[in-house]
Amino acid sequence: MRIAVLGGGGAMGGIFGGCLARAGEEVILIDVAQAAVDAINRDGVLIERKDGSVDTVPVRASSRPEEVGPVDLIINFVKCYHTEAAMRSAAPMLGPDTAILTLQNGWGNADRISDLVGKERVLVGLTYNSGTLLAPGRVKHSGIGITHVGELDGRTTARLEAAVAAFRNAGIDTSLSTRILEEIWKKLALNVCTLPTAALLRFPAHELIQHDGTNALMQALLAEVVAVAAAQNIALSEAERWSAIVKLLEQAIGGRASMLQDVEAGRQTEIDVVNGAIVEAGRRHGVATPFNAAMVWMVKSLQEKYLSEGR
After folding, report:
1. Is the entire prediction scored with pTM above 0.85?
2. How far apart are CA 59 and CA 71, in angstroms?
3. What is the set of domains in the chain, with CATH numbers?
4. Does 311 have pLDDT greater than 60?
């Protein structure tokens, strides 16, 4: 397949793009950061494993989508607040049958993409892989997990099967899901509980479950997610989700949540499509979400402070 990765200079874009290129797919990494593009074109993508070993993958990178031409699949890894700009810039890469797969964090990105390019192009998914950007062109694959991909309407299509086959061939553990919205909400529940809590307290992942206060807070956040999902006929088990969250955090020794990395780097966070998405959905469906609202207020206040200071 001919595949373009938006946000290819970032951690997850580099990991997925590098794995696909190593497996023989025709991959181009698209990023606005020229330093990343130059480093990748010069040295390839350097993927550091948890054991410290490094895999170097030659792959092409560009900051100019208009020079790429139509592709079969666009994988979108950009931050939620860059979605519209990224999709507009990607227009020259859209052919008649180009599919767009969003593997971004949070809830609402598929709608933003659909509004710009048409719902018929959109595939949705999520991944339990995690990564950290170490330097331009160098990423750390800090967590390995499953990736779920599906059509919005739950169908099994040829383009979906082709994308899943490419991922699996690249060594990316991937499930073709006919219930993708439920899978997305399961991951959203994890993010709602862990991302803002880690960002505000500056805790690594495994420490989040070592304190009575953080456990109580995350369980309260989770209860609101389950209630909001139920109001939309999305069935989540609170007990199953909490058990899964605890298990993931127990295994993520030293892991640093993406929102914590954003705060430490002085970047805008994705709080609006994580806890903010729960608050907005709760408002629409008459479900109270005071704990999620409080997390939005606190993260936005912290973000406003450091952004105003020019960090």
Report:
1. yes
2. 16
3. 2-178 (3.40.50.720), 181-308 (1.10.1040.10)
4. no
